[in-house]
Every structure is written in C-alpha cells, then in structure tokens.
Amino acid sequence: MLLVSSTSTTLSGQSQSCLCGYKTVVGMVTAMLEELNITVPVALHLDHGSYEGAKACIEAGFSSIMFDGSHYPIDENVAKTKELVATCNELGLSIEAEVGSIGGEEDGVIGAGECADPQECKMVADLGVTMLAAGIGNIHGKYPDNWAGLSFETLDAIQQLTGEMPLVLHGGTGIPADMIKKAIELGVSKINVNTECQLAFAAATRKYIEEGKDLQGKGFDPRKLLAPGAEAIKETVKEKMELFGSVGKA
C-alpha cells in the first residue's frame, strides 16, 4: 500500500498539492507498475484526506482513500463518510474513515490524541467502510516521555462493537513492540509508520555528509547523496513488516 499525503508544506507555510497533483501520482505509479513489471498487488491510498481531497483522488484514479472527518461533529462525519462510501462501493474502491482525532499534526490537521467513543465508531463502521481508524491515545510524530500509552480498554470496546472491521493504528512510530502486538490481537490490521522512516532517512543522509562522501568524486549527485537514506527507509519498512507479521501477505 502506497500512502499519499494530501498536502505538502512550503517553507513559507503555505499548503499546496503534493507531488504536482493526484493525477500525476496515479500516472507515475501506473507507469512504474508496468515498466518494472511489479507483480505484488499495489494499492494507491490517500492518507488523511479532506472531503474534497477524497473526491479528487477518486476522480484521479486512486484505488483507496481515507476520509478524515474526525474534526467534524459526529453527525457531519457520518453524513460525509456515508456519501463517500456509496461512491467507493460503486467504483470498487476501499475507504478508511476516522473517529476520534489522532494526536499531533498530520497534513495540517492538529489532534489532541483523544480516545474515540466506541459507539461513534460503530456508527461509522456500520456505514460499510473498509477499515476504521480510531483514536486510542496514539499520536503522530515522536511520542513524549510522559505518554500514557495506548488505551487497550478503548480498543477492546471498539472491537467488540465493530466485530470483524479491520482497525487502523496511526502514529505507529515509537510504540513499543509489546503494545503493537497487543493492538494487533485486538483487531488492528493496518499500522501507519512515517516519522520513523523519516528519522532513518535523515540519520543516514546526515552520516553520508558528515563522512564527507558528498565531496568525493560526484558524491554530491542527488542520486548518490540520497541513496543511503532510501536504503535506510527500506530497512525500517522491512523491520516493521516483520514486527507486524505482514511478510508474504500481499
């Protein structure tokens, strides 16, 4: 699953479409699948999309979307999600919804890290979404030293009401392995990890420069300079796949 951010942020703090627009992303991924003869199933997924962003990605040709309506009153979240579910069902797309804001900041949406109301989770799950992200004390970015941990009581209550619905855990960076495994036991089927990949990329790139390799020959070439960071991300993803038990399950 390739997750695409709905926006990127410029140095001036202005929001803009990521990677030159959704249609550009679809074109790039479609061409890569063909040119590289990729045989592993690939889903192109919008992460933390707005209502308008979700509709734009559907039109652009994404195979999966996330509508983050957690910042709306629950009735409005339900209404917008219901409409998007109908569209996705008609086109054969998967859709992820969210209840209870995830802490930290993601794509300009700031959440306090609240725990979702299990009854509200059931309301959204009953709309027929493919998967459901629910706040259980998790946050985006680095976890503070005084983080209280995941609320398994909340997760268990949500799972009891939503049944077989695949649950999504955002903010996977820094969560201890034992918590990850317990969350999976309680119904979590998708875990988002971004910050940890970014940190691995930054560390590897910093090491390359601090060792002066960018000054050796054509070590300044972005393809060489950024290669260690790309490899570090791949290693991080491999580690997470092994921890999550997702190896060989594409």
Helix content: 40-55%
Uncertain runs with pLDDT below 50, 5 residues or more?
8-15, 105-112
- Strands of the widest sheet, in order across it, are 5-6-9-10-11
* CATH homology group: Aldolase class I
Q: State mean pLDDT (0 to 100 scale).
A: 89
Biggest sheet layout: 5 strands, parallel
Taking the alpha carbons of the first and last residues, their distance comes to 9 Å
Top CATH class: Alpha Beta
CATH fold type? TIM Barrel
The number of E-state strands comes to: 11
Strand content: 15-25%
Q: Which structural class should the secondary elements be placed in?
A: alpha/beta
CATH architecture designation: Alpha-Beta Barrel
Précis, in short:
By secondary structure, the chain is α/β, with parallel strands linked by helices. Helices cover 43% and strands 16% of the residues. It is globular and about 60 Å long.
How would you describe this structure to a colleague?
This protein has 250 residues and is α/β, with parallel strands linked by helices. The chain has one domain: Alpha-Beta Barrel (TIM Barrel). The protein is 43% helix and 16% strand. The chain is built from nine helices and eleven strands. The strands form four sheets. Strands 5-6-9-10-11 form a five-stranded parallel sheet. A two-stranded parallel ribbon has the order 1-4. It has a two-stranded antiparallel sheet with strand order 2-3. The longest helix has 18 residues. About 6% of the residues have low confidence.
